[in-house]
Fold:
Amino acid sequence: MKQVKLIKEQNGASCTKCRKCIDCCLHNAISSPEDPEAPIQIHESLCDGCGLCVSVCPERKLILCRL
Structure:
């Protein structure tokens, strides 16, 4: 099964939380916690590996990986 993972840049910078991945996810597998400092959350059990979020991420912080 392919699932999405959030990656960080080598300098540790996180995604900019533009919400494009959240808005496009058809399975509600990605959410944003109430804490603005917390990273987005990917609910692996809901992810079907379609890759739509990966394709819309402007910072390329998402990758598909086989688990």
Remarks:
- The chain has a mean pLDDT of 81.
- The radius of gyration is 11 Å.
- The helical segments are 20-24, 52-56.
- Residues 20-24 form the longest helix (5 residues).
